Amino acid sequence: MVAAKVGWMSETPFLAPDGQTRCAWAGGAPEFLDYHDTEWGFPTGGDVRLFEKICLEGFQSGLSWRTILNKRPAFREDFAGFDFHQVAEFDESDVERLLRDARIIRHRGKIEAAINNARRAVELVEERGSLAAYVWDFEPEPLKIPEVVATSPASVSLSKDLKKRGWKFVGPTTMYAFMQSMGIINDHSLDCVIRDRVEAERKAFVRP
Known about the structure:
It holds the Pfam family Adenine_glyco. The protein has ten helices and two strands. The protein starts with 13 loop residues before the first strand and ends with a helix. 50% of the residues lie in helices and 2% in strands. A two-stranded antiparallel ribbon has the order 1-2. With 208 residues, the chain is mainly alpha-helical. Helix 2 (47-60) packs across helix 3 (65-78) and helix 2 packs across helix 9.
C-alpha cells in the first residue's frame, strides 16, 4: 500500500484508542492499526518476507490493500509460505489450482507473474547472495520530511532493473509501496507515534 495514495499528510492524523496519533491511513479499517504498528515501515532483511511483499503488492494492483491483507493467510497457504524456491517449481496445474481458490485474487496474469518472479528471485539470489542484499542496494538517502508521492527515483530505478531481469508486476508505484512497507524508506508521518520507533530500528538494522 502506498501511503501517499490515501493522502496521510493532508488529512487529520488518526487518534488511536491508546490516545496517540498514527498515520491517517491507519484508521481506515480495523485491521490496519496492528499492521501499521507492527509491520509497515519496519526494516526487513528476510528474503521470504521481501518476496512475499513484492508478490502481494503486485496482486494489489487495481485493488485495495485491505482486500489483500484480509486474504494474506490464504495467499500464504496457497503459495507455500512464499518460499520462492518452492513457488519456482509451480507448473500449469498449480496455476489452475490457484485459479479455483476463491480465497485469493484469481487473476491469471498476477498468478503467473508470482511464479515467474519466484524463478527470477532464485536467479537473483544465485547472483547476489540474497534478495535482501539486492533490494537494500536501492535504499535512498532519507528525507527529513516525507513526501506525498506515489513513486520516487529509487523506486523507478528498482522497477527498471527488476524488469530488465524479467520480473513482472513491479512498476514504480508498486515498488514504492514495497519500499515503504519493508522499511527501505521511513514514510510514517512526522506526527505518527510509530515513526521514531521505525527510525530507531532502521538505524540499528544491519544492511545485508
